[in-house]
Amino acid sequence: MTEQNMIKETDSPQDLAATVAQVRTEVSALHAYLVTYKLVVWTAGNVSARVPGQELMVIKPSGIEYDQLAPELMIVTDLHGVPVDGVDSAHWGNPDLAPSSDTDAHAYVYRHMPDVHGVVHTHSPYATAWAALDEPVPCVLTMMADEFGGDIPIGPFALIGDDSIGRGIVETLRESKSPAVLMKNHGPFTIGPSAKAAVKAAVMVEEVAKTVHIARQIGTPIPIDAEHVARLNDRYMNVYGQ
Ligand SMILES: O=C(CO)[C@@H](O)[C@H](O)COP(=O)(O)O
């Protein structure tokens, strides 16, 4: 283990272990939403969460089926995606378990967007179809103005396996109100102030990508003007809900 991925010594080991245990439980459980909302096939999607106050994140192991996931199988890494051992009693490995193949992308987002506490990636079919076309989903629904504050943008083409996906996500979402980006030829990545918020954005992306696709089969969807988009987004962000 390098000095870089040693745990900070500011929290007591007991507090840190309890926090990590909570994050493990949350990240493991949130994958069920991906299955429930039909956003994933086989093992093609992942959820991660930042460990609050630490240079750490929790992500699922690569290639493990969703019904096998459990808190103790979640992997704790530093914000460069390097697994960190000894954070809590649920030993991160099983040295046979590698973290998700998208770990570098998630880690890059946490390093560069300090307010982001959750990242989700799926290959949900309607959203991914727009990504294959290299076409943003235009803001033609009030639900899109609410949740995304405008069009759902396309991010650049990026190869899997290094920082390029993370860089594409950050460069695109820094310029946008949207918590979702459709990475060209790949699929949606979503972010949120919590892992659950990022999961919700992944569910919403698929829903609106599907509806706008259907609308285009029967006519020409009508864009919502920018002033109305801004007002809808402001109401949703500041007034909607409890
Ligand atoms: O896009 C890819 C690989 O093409 C990934 O999103 C995987 O489909 C999910 O992999 P793991 O999280 O199980 O490594």
UniProtKB/TrEMBL annotation:
The keyword Zinc applies. GO terms for biological process: pentose catabolic process. SUPFAM superfamilies: AraD/HMP-PK domain-like. It catalyses: L-ribulose 5-phosphate = D-xylulose 5-phosphate. Residues 25-213 form the Class II aldolase/adducin N-terminal domain. Keywords: Isomerase, Metal-binding, Zinc. InterPro entries: Aldolase_class_II_sugar_metab (IPR050197), Aldolase_II/adducin_N (IPR001303), Aldolase_II/adducin_N_sf (IPR036409). Its cofactor is Zn(2+). GO terms for cellular component: cytosol. GO terms for molecular function: aldehyde-lyase activity; L-ribulose-phosphate 4-epimerase activity; metal ion binding. Its EC number is 5.1.3.4. It is an enzyme of class 5 (isomerase). Gene3D superfamilies: Class II aldolase/adducin N-terminal domain. NCBIfam families: PRK06557.1. Belongs to the aldolase class II family. AraD/FucA subfamily. This is L-ribulose-5-phosphate 4-epimerase.
